[in-house]
Design brief:
The complex is a heterodimer.
Chain A: H1 2-17, H2 25-32, H3 34-47, H4 54-73, H5 80-95, H6 97-105, H7 107-113, H8 120-127, E1 139-140, E2 145-149, H9 152-155, H10 158-163
Helix pairs in contact in A: 1-4, 2-3, 5-6, 6-7
Chain B: H1 2-8, H2 20-29, H3 39-47, E1 61-66, E2 72-78, E3 83-87, H4 89-97, H5 104-115, H6 120-132, H7 143-157, H8 161-182, E4 184-188, H9 192-200, H10 209-224, H11 240-267, E5 274-280, E6 283-289, H12 299-326, H13 330-351, H14 358-367, H15 372-389, H16 396-444
Helix pairs in contact in B: 9-11, 10-12, 11-12, 11-13, 12-13, 12-14, 15-16
Classes of the chains: A mainly alpha, B mainly alpha.
Amino acid sequence: MGKVTDLLVEYTDALLQGKPIPKEVEPELAAEFRPLWATVEFLHRVLRPAPVPSELAQRLENRLAAEWQKRQEKPASIPQALRQALEQLIGRALSDEGFRAQLIEDPEKAAMGLGLTLTPYELAALRTMDAHKLASLIQDLDERISKTSLDPTNLSGLTDLMER
Amino acid sequence: MRQRLEQDNPTATSAPSASLWEKLGERVEEAPSEPALNLWAILGAKVDFAKYKPKRISDYELTEGKTAQGQVYYMLKNPAASTYLQLGPQELFLWNMMDGEHSVKDMSIAFLLKYGALPIDLIINMLATLQNKAFLEKRPVNLYQKTTQTLARRALQSKGVLYLTALKVMAVILKAFFWMLGGNIITLRKIDQSVGALYRRGGKLLFHPVAQVAYILLVVLGLATLFMPSGAKGGATVGFSTIAFIYLGLFGIILVHEGVHALTCKHYGREVKEAGLSFYMGTLAAFVDTTDMWMEPDRKHRMAVSWAGPYSNLILGAACSLGIFLSPWPQVNAVLTSLATVNFLLVFMNLNPLLEWDGYYMLMDYLEIPCLRRRSLNFVRKQLWGKLKARASFNREEKIFTVFGLLAGLWTAIVLVMFAIFLPQRIIGWINSLSWLLGKILSHF
């Protein structure tokens, strides 16, 4: 989720410094982080004309950090449009090994190959896919068979005894 | 088609109660049916992996464990099929979704949202493993594999009778060879209840702390007297009774060794799947199957089950050694010497981890790497040289695989060569022993 984090940081910085918010950032954040967005937008509207008091800036930062942490722990519900795009992409990836490799390598190109036009946010979400992140622990297990050799002539020296 | 139907039965269209052909004709003319009724849609859904809805078995057992490094894992058991599998938290997430309601696509998306990674390869491998181990209710048939096998069989059949016979003979020889490397001869399948009863009716006393102290004292005393002179005067005359006692003693040693494996398994509340007689690397061996110990989360308990066998031999060997020191009778000492030798040899043989004896299972549990042997040998065969050529770095597991794989491979090769060279001699030895025993028995009558 690096891209979204960057956007949030960018937005917070802009907000705190009283700079204009990049236009393309707003709808992307709004789509996914609606409750957070509402809070931030309200604060932005109220506070932007004046310098942000340091105490409030700290609280705002904390609020953003907490919200972000919560999102990391519990995945946000995915927007319907992105879900449909994902369904198409994953459906194809499940049946086409070449496409699967392409999706991991370059999701934008893979999506375009299917005729999907993804928003920057959707692409950012797809780019977070990491095929190498999986630490698979699925493991077949040995049969645990305890054995004792029954080769008495070899083990006990019986052959020697018999020859005596 | 409609026209043809009408020609066949010109009155059909007007009659309210139409014939089968008319009804079919009408259905053909109808708009495409709902996806659920459309044959092609149904077939499409059946062969579409993305729409496949795996359903896990309803009767399964799951335990949670943690490695020494704090990594959580889960052990899965199918009690009906006696199969086991280790899962990680990510696989458990997928396993919990396999309720027959979620498709592979649903699972992929849910996984992606939770872990931020595309699990397609993971799901494919997991489903194949679950299917092989009978953890899925409907086991999809691998149509392509079956077709390939049928074609291969037909191709072979076309080669002629002589060719086929030669192949069959070779297959029988190979089967016999592999049977001698690890096939079962006698298998007692319903032994768990008997072992459980034995444990409850006194077997549990073996695990009492007082008994544990007694074992340690016996081992210390026995080992201390190992190199002391015997109390007996004069040499022993080896006769039928001496040999018979040795044979009885050997039988007892084997029974104790395998029995304590089974009892320790029961001590930790797990099932003894089966016991019996088998071949292992060309050697006749008694065995007990304690695979159910995988469900025990504490690796020390698993190691205890494996250690119980060699430990019993150490105790018995020490007891024999003490007996030799105390006994004034040469005949008794001859028997005890043989049995002490067997016991101490069994301790070393079983603790050798390079073949699948008790020491191997202990090492595997200690390192917390299931299938250590197979994975090490695979690593050495498929990856080691590539990594060495590329001067790539090795992680912990790869270092273990390298050392263990090379040593186990070398040791196995030595054992196999010895097995092949000495097999005729061994068979002659068995025959000689048996004929000697039979001769002795007959001479008594």
